[in-house]
Automatic annotation (TrEMBL):
Similarity section: Belongs to the major facilitator superfamily.
Keyword line: Membrane, Transmembrane, Transmembrane helix, Transport
Any single GO CC term annotated in Swiss-Prot or TrEMBL for this entry: membrane
Protein name: Major facilitator superfamily (MFS) profile domain-containing protein
Cellular compartment(s): Membrane
GO molecular function: transmembrane transporter activity
InterPro entries: MFS, MFS_dom, MFS_trans_sf
Transmembrane parts of this sequence: 70-91, 103-124, 136-157, 195-213, 233-254, 331-352, 379-397, 409-425, 431-453, 465-487, 493-514
Membrane-topology descriptor: Multi-pass membrane protein
Main location class: membrane
Keyword Transmembrane helix found: yes
Boundaries of every Major facilitator superfamily (MFS) profile domain copy: 67-517
Length: 522
């Protein structure tokens, strides 16, 4: 054996002596998660080993009330993102009537804001840290949402709303990233469960908009829509913006968010990573088995090059984080499939919402009495039942035969089936029933994808990868209103195309190379 091999074996033995023996106070099969890393971090043996040690330390500390608080506070971000997207859909008709405009400009500009926010906040969080982006984004979202309600021109309304969604676009990325990086490995399924907040946000938006839009909107028979008779959409923006502001305040008062240990490791801050773990362990009467000396010893055994440890914030760092998503063929393949999935769902779902009403109307379907009250009532019902999607997905992702990939396959196939079936809708009851079924099934898929993507991204580039994935989604969302506006909705062809996209999503889900179930995210 060569001297290099001898050195490797000695180092491997030394590393093994550093690994804490984790004991979990959970169900009988939780031990299978210990030290089961999903993949190595290419090109940095030191970071791979230190990440494994941090994962085992988090497992040893276990699940605490800190994680419960994060579930709610991070869930607020999920709720806000969906809430803002739904506000545009619920209010756009009356906004366009007031400013005498036809093209669905508000939804398009909101998606542009979400696109820019996903990229900017995602990349920035890998450079300045999760904590700053996490706390700041929700405040900005609230301020500009409230300001939107006071817009005196269509340009002002669209511009302010776009800035609000730009802030929220990064907030959603932080929610999954931060929550995942603090969770014990046997609780990673909770990132899927957290998607239930998406439905909660939509339900709150629908319930708030319902009375305002019904009672304070221009009469549908009015030829001219006066601002004084059309205050409902403004009340909706102001009320929900104020609610978001309250949530932002709760984020910085109810719990003091710690910077994630994996971000600290990626930036060479061993002492800070251990301090974070110590504070959580001490507060809840647990023991953190990891010490700074343990992590420093790894760095001595596997020295990190100057380029890897460089923490200067500049544009070169942006490219480093993007490049880090493609370190070898398998991870690059996984990253590309994630981008493809987000792109396909980003086009299919908004188009579904844009095309269906026009398609059903052209085919003579009696989907309701046409009143505003019925429209918002149905919206509230459909949005509330969507909460069932993540509740169904959460146990499925833990099933040893399904896992994350199998759950996404099931959600996508069921969505495709109900989309095909939607073309047979002929009355109000069928419309509401199929809408609810679609809402549940698509959230089985969507909720799992939201959790899966950060799980299979390297920790030091996770926010960037998560942000770019969501950015592809938002870009397609911005295109969807344009396609819907200029396309012919008199045939069922668009509906079949969208259903086919979900079949494609099922195929892509089956092709993912990594199954996070039973493994610690790196």
């Amino acid at each position: 054996m060569s001297s290099a091999d001898d050195t490797y074996q000695e180092n491997k033995t030394d590393v093994e002596t550093l690994r804490p023996t984790a004991t979990l106070e959970t169900d009988s099969d939780s031990s299978e998660f210990l030290a089961h890393k999903l993949f190595d971090i290419p090109g940095n043996d030191s970071l791979t080993i230190k990440t494994v040690l941090v994962n085992e330390a988090i497992d040893d500390i276990g699940f605490t009330n800190y994680h419960v608080k994060l579930f709610f506070l991070n869930g607020f971000g999920y709720a806000v993102d969906s809430l803002l997207m739904l506000i545009a859909s619920l209010t756009q008709t009356q906004i366009l009537r007031e400013f005498n405009y036809e093209f669905p400009i508000l939804i398009a500009t909101n998606y542009v804001g979400l696109f820019v926010g996903a990229i900017c906040w995602g990349v920035t969080a890998d450079i300045i840290g999760r904590k700053i982006a996490f706390n700041l984004s929700l405040f900005l979202t609230a301020v500009f949402a409230i300001a939107t309600g006071g817009g005196l021109s269509l340009s002002a309304v669209c511009g302010l709303s776009a800035v609000s969604t730009l802030s929220a676009g990064g907030n959603l990325i932080m929610d999954t990233t931060v929550f995942l990086e603090f969770l014990p490995s046997h609780k990673q399924w909770m990132v899927t469960l957290m998607a239930l907040w998406w439905g909660i946000g939509q339900t709150v938006a629908a319930l708030v908009a319902w009375p305002f839009m019904v009672n304070f909107s221009c009469p549908e028979t009015a030829e001219v829509c006066l601002r004084s008779e059309n205050m409902g959409w403004r009340y909706t923006f102001i009320t929900l913006g104020a609610l978001v502001l309250v949530l932002a305040i709760l984020r910085v008062t109810v719990v003091r968010l710690e910077e994630t240990p994996k971000y600290c490791l990626a930036n060479g801050e061993n002492g800070r990573a251990v301090e974070v773990l110590n504070r959580i362990a001490n507060k809840y009467g647990r023991v953190n088995p990891l010490t700074v000396e343990d992590l420093d010893k790894i760095d001595r055994l596997y020295p990190v090059t100057k380029e890897e440890s460089d923490k200067v914030i500049n544009f070169d760092r942006l490219f480093i984080h993007v490049k880090g998503l493609f370190p070898n063929k398998k991870i690059a393949y996984s990253t590309c499939l994630n981008f493809l999935s987000w792109t396909m769902i980003g086009l299919a779902y908004p188009l579904f919402n844009q095309f269906l009403p026009s398609y059903l109307q052209s085919r003579g379907a009696e989907t309701g009495d046409g009143s505003m009250n019925t429209t918002y009532k149905n919206a509230a019902i459909v949005d509330s039942v969507s909460i069932a999607g993540p509740l169904i997905a959460a146990p499925l992702v833990q099933n040893k035969y399904l896992g994350r990939r199998g759950t996404m396959v099931i959600g996508a196939i069921l969505t495709a089936i109900f989309m095909f079936a939607y073309t047979s809708v002929r009355n109000q009851a069928q419309n509401l029933g199929f809408s609810c079924a679609n809402s549940i099934c698509i959230n089985i898929y969507y909720g799992t994808l939201f959790a899966y993507t950060p799980e299979v991204m390297p920790a030091q580039h996770r926010a960037t990868g998560n942000g770019l994935s969501v950015a592809f989604n938002r870009a397609m969302g911005a295109i969807a209103p344009v396609i819907a506006y200029y396309s012919d909705t008199a045939t069922a062809a668009p509906v079949y195309v969208m259903a086919a996209l979900f079949i494609g999503l099922a195929i892509v889900s089956a092709m993912f190379p990594f199954e996070p179930r039973g493994h610690s995210s790196m």
